[in-house]
Amino acid sequence: MFAVALIVFREVLEASLVVTIILAVTRNVPHRGLWVALGITVGVMGAGLIALLTRVISASFEGAGQEIIDVILLLTAVVMISWHVIWMNSHGREMAKNMRSIGGAISEGTQPIYVVSVIIGLAVMREGSEIVLMLQGLWLNGSSLMMLEGFFVGLSAGVLLGLLIYVGFLALSLKHIFSVTNTLLILIAAGMSAHAANFLAQAGLISSFGSRVWDTNPLLSEESTLGQVMATLIGYIACPSGVEVLFYTGTLLIIITLIFVTRRTSHCASIRSDLFHSKGSM
Amino acid sequence: MWLIMAVKITIRCITKTLKTLCLSGVFSFCGMTAFADTVPEQLLVLRDHHFVPPTLVVPAGQRFKLVIKNEDLTAAEFESSELSREKIIPAHASGYVFIDPLDVGRYSFFDDFNHDTANGTIIAQ
After folding, report:
1. Does B100 touch chain A (CB under 8 A)?
2. What letter would DSSP give residue A213?
3. Which of B62, B84, B106, B116 is best to mutate for the A interface (most A CBs within 10 A)?
4. Mean pLDDT to the nearest integer, A100-114
5. Of A33, A134, A207, B33, whose CB has the highest number of CB atoms within 10 Å?
6. Which of A66, A50, A68, A67 lies closest to A58 in space, CA to CA?
7. Residue B100 is inside which H or E element, if any?
8. B113 touching A, CB under 8 A?
9. CA of B52: how far to CAs of A92, B29, B45, in Å?
């Protein structure tokens, strides 16, 4: 039972943390619960579908189908998260200036809220498909009661940890919530990108550029719960390969550059409109 | 002001270099499939939720293709955090992962869906 619970917990944790951060970001968005629920529902159905198609997926692309699907899911999430963060950074300031909540802007339709559902759906889909496969195996082995117990214990523990972190977020002021969650989202995206790179190397599609650049396992083991939380939250990799380091830093730099560029453009635009308005009033 | 400009230009240069690196990655990707076939193979079999052989000895410092053949009725997930590899192997099917050149040492692996029985070690020497 404990082994099952642990595996379910580990898989649920990643999706749970993503949902937590999204919930914190969209604190003031009306009906956000619906969009989050939609994301989770579609994610669970997608997980079932992927589990159902495992055999087909595994055999496709000369045996590299699984990695290719994972890479597509991960990179789509990276793009969605980056888009969201960049948008928040270029518009968030104006919102704050106008004493309006960031959430208000999302509900006004300037940032499509379905992005929230997509990000959550992708996370649930990836983690959920493994749970489905494991449970299916236990079911076939005839250990159904143990399976159910383990599943619910693991699921509750994962959701509970997410809730705890959410309460922690709520304790932050609105200004800090904005910067903390945005920083976390950028790091999560960088971590997902590194994860995708590792999948490509695993399938032999790209070179690893060095297998062990450093090893911080003695400091913080990736198998410990804290290590797993860190792996999701900031993309912590105890023993990364060269290509993982490259993708991680590359993604970070690209997102930060885009934030600077768009912020500057929107800043210029607002100065221009300020000038225009002051001229008009003269 | 100049400092900010300089930082921005540096960031742009770095992004450009990274993009070039990514592109070269894509090119090496095209040549990689042929390259992948010449890599030596090692075989692991999953039978009754045990790895056969439980200990696999491989030469250190050499990239290899690890083929995992699952003879059981249920799916398995070959996993090793030390090798940073995870791959689902459906029932009655085979899958593979590429393992980068290893330093001399022991690397443990397991079936994530059957932790208790299905675990083993790769010894690189």
Report:
1. yes
2. S
3. B84
4. 58
5. A134
6. A66
7. none
8. yes
9. 57, 32, 5
Chain B residue with the nearest C-alpha to that of A67:
B87
Which residues in chain A have Cβ-Cβ distances shorter than 8 Å to B73? 140
Q: How many CB atoms lie within 10 A of CB A27?
A: 17
Please answer whether residues A199 and A58 qualify as being in contact, where contact means their C-beta atoms are separated by less than 8 angstroms.
no
B contacts of A56 (beta carbons < 8 Å): none
What are the chain A neighbours of B8 within 8 Å (beta carbons)? 260
Q: How confident is the model at residue A11 (pLDDT cuts 50, 70, 90)?
A: confident
- Asked whether residue A252 carries a pLDDT value surpassing 90, the answer given is yes
Residue B27 has pLDDT above 50, yes or no: no
Contact B93 A256 (CB under 8 A): no
Q: A48 or A210, which is more confident?
A: A48
The reply to whether A60 touches chain B by the CB within 8 Å rule is no
Helix orientation angle between A32-52 and A114-140, rounded to the nearest 10 degrees: 40
Nearest CA in chain A to B116: A3
Rounded Cα–Cα distance for residues B2 and A61 (Å): 50
The residue count for chain B = 125
Residues in chain B closer than 8 A to A260 (CB atoms): 8, 11
Structure tokens at B16: 């450009």
End-to-end alpha carbon distance in chain A: 76
Intra-chain end-to-end CA distance of chain B, in Å: 56
Could you tell me if residue A94 is left (phi over 0), alpha (psi between -120 and 50 degrees) or otherwise beta? alpha
Binned at pLDDT 50, 70 and 90, residue A218 comes out as confident
User: How many Å apart are CA A222 and CA A194, to the nearest integer?
Assistant: 15
Chain B contact set for A238 (CB, 8 A): 81
Q: Which ipTM was obtained for this model?
A: 0.79
Beta carbons of A7 and B112 less than 8 Å apart: yes
Comparing CA positions, the residue from A197, A207, A257, A242 lying closest to residue B15 is: A257
| A66 at B interface, C-beta within 8 A | yes
- What are the contacts of A14-17 at 24+ separation with CB within 8 A? A14/A123, A14/A126, A14/A127, A14/A228, A14/A231, A14/A232, A15/A43, A15/A120, A15/A123, A15/A124, A15/A126, A15/A127, A15/A128, A15/A158, A16/A158, A16/A159, A16/A161, A16/A162, A17/A162, A17/A165, A17/A229, A17/A232, A17/A233
